[in-house]
Known about the structure:
The protein is of the alpha/beta class. It has a single domain, classed as Maf protein. It is 40% helix and 27% strand. It has eight helices and seven strands. It has helices at residues 9-17, 31-40, 45-61, 89-99, 135-143, 147-152, 173-176, 181-190; strands at residues 2-4, 22-24, 68-78, 81-83, 103-114, 117-130, 166-170. Strands 1, 2, 3, 4, 5, 6 and 7 form a seven-stranded mixed sheet that branches. The longest helix has 17 residues, at 45-61. It is globular.
Amino acid sequence: MIILASKSKVRKKILDENNIISQVVPSNVDEDIVKDSLLKEKATPTIISKNLAELKANKVSLKHADKMVLGADSVIDLEGKLISKPNDRREAFDILKKLNGKKHDLVSSVCISKNGTMVWNYSDKATLSMKEFSDEDLQKYLSRISDEALYAYNVYQIEGEGRNLFENIEGDEDTIMGLPVKKIKEYIGSL
Length: 191
């Protein structure tokens, strides 16, 4: 069994669908403080994603001796700039406008920790090319998305309505949904 240091229902579902027995113990890490600090140090979006995944896993693993704890984090990298999850629908619209008609990377990082120390990590990225939309089209899209999906998926839900936003998607869908599960299975299988 593995402990998932995330309250993401999508990540839990991916683990369940891949027969990885998991228990959810959210890390409750204040991501904004960590992101702000790392951005001041000129960290790349990938480094930020890796650091957050490790911090989440380490924090939870300190309280669960000898258990494997999986931390995960996903960020959008638009031309080297970090795009964070929206806090409200206005921010979601602003993010979609920034991505509109452009190519961006979605980076998902995972870390497995034991006794407060990272024992394995992996980052993967997918490249998504968004179609060009009018402001009205973007507002219509947002009106069809539930709050839960909007705030959980960084403005697009690739396995649902969000797929229609893109003209091209390169990369693993599980990575886009926040958990590159194939590599996690490889690591767990190697133990």
